[in-house]
Amino acid sequence: MRIEPSLVEVMLAAVPDLRAYALALCGHADHADDLVQEALVHAIAKIHSFAPGTNMAAWLSTILRNHFFNEYRKRRREVADSDGYFVATMTSQPEQEQHVQLAEFRAALAKLPDDQREALILVGGAGLSYEEAAAICRCPVGTVKSRANRGRARLAALLAIDTARDFGPDRAIQAALSAGDLRWAA
Q1: pTM (2 decimals)?
Q2: Is residue 70 located within the same domain as residue 105?
Q3: CATH code at position 132
């Protein structure tokens, strides 16, 4: 595949900014370098989809961001356990209620405005700092804090969450635990 020299120059000029962006996302220089490399490889493979006259740095940043989040989602499901120790110690509660709760959460999250949902996903879901989320969203830190706070409040209202006790074991298990505490206290 042959790429126009002018596009190559613009891509190479964007590398320092891409590296800074990747470093803000992941916090590790080695991982940031890998992210930049993956973004450039993907961009070269998909160079035919780049619209001439648009912002190459923004296009590359979007590719890098998407790659980071795809990689994050994949890593979140993986556990290093070569000898099987962790697998042997794992137990779980019945999943029926969790599936319903997850479906309710997804539906409520989908009802949030896009800016609030993005702030919550970046800060709450991806575990990024407000500063990192602000860099990704390209807005002030205070704006991300405000969006995340409004999003949390709206999500809590949609899910009928009144107190912190509404988290954790479902209400039936909480009631059984509370009844057990009262019986033993008497």
Answers
A1: 0.42
A2: no
A3: 1.10.10.10
Domain enclosing residue 160, as ranges: 95-164
Q: What is the pLDDT along the chain (186 residues), one digit of tens a residue?
A: 677 788 888 888 999 999 999 998 888 889 899 999 999 999 999 888 888 888 988 999 999 999 998 888 887 776 666 676 766 666 666 667 777 888 888 899 899 999 999 998 898 888 889 999 999 999 999 999 999 999 999 988 888 887 766 655 555 555 555 544 444 443
Number of domains in the chain: 2
Q: d(Cα 155, Cα 149) in Å, to the nearest integer?
A: 10
At 98, give phi and psi (nearest 5°).
-65, -35
Query: How far apart (Å, rounded) are the C-alpha atoms in residues 54 and 186?
Result: 73
